[in-house]
Amino acid sequence: MRVERLGDNKVRFMLSYDDLDQRGIDRDEIWQNGRKVQELFWDMMEKAYLETGFEVAGPIAVEAFTMPTEGVIVVVTQLPSLPAHEQELLEEEDDDAEMTMISPDPFGAFTFVFQDLEEVIRAAHSLQAYEAVGGTLYHYKERYHLFFDEDEVGEELYDTFWSILHEYGELSPTTKAMLDEYGKRVMNGNAVQTITQHFPLR
Length: 202
Known about the structure:
Alpha-Beta Plaits; 2 domains; 7 helices; five-stranded antiparallel β-sheet
């Protein structure tokens, strides 16, 4: 298990399938909030604190996705604290924290969301190093969404694509149909090439 700090409020864990096997956790079991998964989570938080200084205090968001060959990537983000009365209501509704996971179809279509265009540009240039093609860029809810169809990413580069994209953005559950209907299409079909040709790295 490896841990990497991505910013003041975010850390990323890389768990191999061997890591899960050593703890007696099946691949499908990682998406459940069972005792072994909870123990793993708090061991991860302890490792993050000891190695990076990241300390959990207050609400957090947990995102995870599986890589077909490498294992599971988990990103933990510290959220702004809620007002006292809202926190009390939240605690009354659910005393047990749960991890929310996103498990997309391996080698299927996917979308990553970015806070600003600069992050999209950096991601595109990193992808271009692997001769990436395709991608459709949308602007939706004040953020940029980069969609890749299943035939735009070969199996041999799938893990690499996800690792690069997750360095600059986050996996999004927003569907292409939703983006087509409510978002603005900025670049159609060849977003990676278009971005790298017209937007140099600063």
